[in-house]
Amino acid sequence: MIKLTLNIIFFLITLGIYSQTNIYGTVTDQGSSEVIPFASVHLNYNDTILDAETDFEGKFYFSNVKSDSLRLSVRSSEYLDFDSTLFLHEDSIVFSIDLISDSTAEYSVFISPYNRKGALKDIEKGRLNLLLPGGIVSAAELPNDSIFEEKYNVVFISQGCVRSPGENQAEYNYEIFKYLDETYGREWRKEIRKDVIGFKKR
């Protein structure tokens, strides 16, 4: 009986260590929204490189990805390359990628405001966010979120799994934590959601 119990525990631990994610994606033209077939898709994580090609409907699929984060790149002739970091927090994620035609006269890159510089600007404007992990862009809510948000003048948000250039969520939250300590003392640390990125109760 003891041996059976130990085997079950070992099996459950093994499942936790080797949790896997399935990734489903669609590649489209940003201007026309038409799907792009035969685009090359590459995943790079933990010294592993996976390659795929979009089908006639612009879709691609990777199964059993064993990593919390990875590098995703997409290449297709007549389009600018797509390259970004992907963070995995779900068993399966579904998303789309818009490629920009290389004939476009101007190519603007969106620089994320979620870094140290962005946090200092938000503090100055009195517009504070606390960033949460998550696979879907949303304002995730728990029962006590609204109470905390109103009391400390902050908003909990999740930016999804894809990171924009210049983004550092832990760095952003760290500056907000410092501001809350200076403004409210340390009482807020007992009330905050424990899944906020970079939070450590001290």
What does this entry look like structurally?
It is a single chain. This protein is of the alpha+beta class. It folds into 2 domains: 98 residues, Sandwich (Immunoglobulin-like), CATH 2.60.40; 75 residues, no CATH class. Helices cover 25% and strands 32% of the residues. It contains 4 helices and 11 strands. The strands form 3 sheets. Strands 3-2-5-6-11 form a 5-stranded antiparallel beta sheet, with no helix packed on it. The chain has a 3-stranded mixed beta sheet with strand order 4-1-7, with no helix packed on it. Strand 5 and strand 6 form a beta hairpin. The longest helix is centred in the first third of the chain and has 16 residues. It is elongated and about 55 Å long. The N and C termini lie far apart (42 Å). 19% of the residues are buried. The N terminus is likely disordered.
Features:
202 residues; alpha+beta; Immunoglobulin-like; 2 domains; 5-stranded antiparallel sheet; 11 strands; disordered N terminus
Condensed summary:
With 202 residues, this protein is of the alpha+beta class. It is built from four helices and eleven strands.
What's the SSE blueprint?
Layout: H1 2-17, E1 21-29, E2 40-45, E3 48-53, E4 59-65, E5 69-75, E6 82-87, E7 92-99, H2 116-125, E8 128-132, E9 137-138, H3 145-152, E10 154-159, E11 162-163, H4 169-184
Parallel strand pairs: 1-7, 8-10
Antiparallel strand pairs: 1-4, 2-3, 2-5, 5-6, 6-11, 9-10
Helix pairs in contact: 2-4
